[in-house]
Amino acid sequence: MGRSRVDPARTVAFEVLKAVRVHDAYTNLVLPSLLRKHRLTGRDAAFATELASGTLRRLATYDAVLDACTDRPLRKVEAKVLDALRLGAHQLLAMRVPQHAAIATTVDLVRSEVGPGAGGFANAVLRKVSQRDLEAWFAELAPARDADPVGHDALVHSHPAWVVEALGAALEGVGAGDEVADLLAADNVAPAVTLVARPGRSNREELPGEPTPYSPHGVVLGSGDPGQVPAVAEGRAGVQDEGSQLVAVALADAPLEGRDEHWLDLCAGPGGKSALLAALAAGRGADLLAVERQPHRAELVRRALAGADGVRGVVTADGTRPPLEPGSFDRVLVDAPCTGLGALRRRPESRWRRSPDDLTVLVDLQRRLLASALDLVRPGGVVLYATCSPVLAETRDVVAATLEQQPGAQLVDLAPQHVQVPTSAGPLPGTVQLWPHRHRTDAMFMAVLRRAGEPAGD
């Protein structure tokens, strides 16, 4: 049976799941090219996006339901069939798709990709799935929350158990341990598209959408393709989460002793924060140098900075030992590689790829990057350490260890800069932690450290 019966939107979602499974692709990166390939726009593009992203967010929930509806272990179900069944489960349990349409289109997809026999299997499984709604499946499959809160939340909110525990500990670190379910639920809500105006090149009044509540440079796009916004198409504005915008603003506004001429982005790829920092630096007569280890990401940074004023250049180098003069920068950003558990709304597949073992490698890298930044900043200058993760090992513990090992580093209180951002206190006094369920941003952590000593002259 040919592919003609499979509609393009479901084909796109199926291809996204395959790319994530086979090539470790990221949904938000592979999806746009597939939408263009199949010429999907408007409602069809929105349907494909929700079908793919929503399925990946709810993977653990749907696998538990499917496992209850099959007579064989899921690991023995052909991967392509399982991908299609997951898409069908999402349509049945979380989308406004009529039952008959959800089942029939999924069966057509399986028949097209695998064969008639697999189509019959998919039909039988999905009919069992459709016999209950999502809440009824939770009641049957999830352990009671008072008896096993981690197991309950892991199934109901579709997060690995270790991630539930790590995020719960992060919330406890700021005195909000009772908000775990709210945070996990927020991770499963598709984020709004947020635009950023790059000062000196555009302003947010020319961007469509509602002004962001905390960043002075952003708007929340109500609908439409951001690439069709003239300022975005011309590189004078960009797509950037409000939390990421606030990282750049926090570095730019951190109190400084002495001159303010040379800024550095030490982990610059893919370039969104660099572009905003360059605009902010140029407005003060300062310049920005960007460093990125991976060549293909360094090229993305160059594209992001194309046409911007005040850019010294992009250096492809290891940020832990870059070929730069120690003490030669006034402001340094370390947007460190991390688990990314603060951006699960945008990268739903990340929750299934990370493991507790990743923390050991990442934390070591984060500490070395922060030490490198403190070596590169001059006395009196400031370093902003940021992660898109609230996990305490990557936030509180990295900063605390650095302060202990580097007696010349002093923590700067960020609270005065964030008086307009309620409930954003971080796990260390003076640090900031944003949250998806509180601020509708990625869970960005920020800490500013000043290098002690006599500042350079003006």
Automatic annotation (TrEMBL):
GO terms for molecular function: RNA binding; RNA methyltransferase activity. It comes from Nocardioides marinisabuli. The keyword Methyltransferase applies. It comes from the Bacteria. The active site is at 388 (nucleophile). Pfam families: Methyltr_RsmB-F, NusB. Its EC number is 2.1.1.176. S-adenosyl-L-methionine binds at residues 267-273, 292, 318, 335. Belongs to the class I-like SAM-binding methyltransferase superfamily. RsmB/NOP family. Keywords: Methyltransferase, RNA-binding, S-adenosyl-L-methionine, Transferase. InterPro entries: MeTrfase_RsmB-F_NOP2_cat, MeTrfase_RsmB-F_NOP2_dom, NusB-like_sf, NusB_RsmB_TIM44, RCMT, RsmB/NOL1/NOP2-like_CS, SAM-dependent_MTases_sf. Residues 169-452 form the SAM-dependent MTase RsmB/NOP-type domain. GO terms for biological process: regulation of DNA-templated transcription; RNA methylation. May act as RNA methyltransferase. This is 16S rRNA (Cytosine967-C5)-methyltransferase. The keyword Transferase applies.
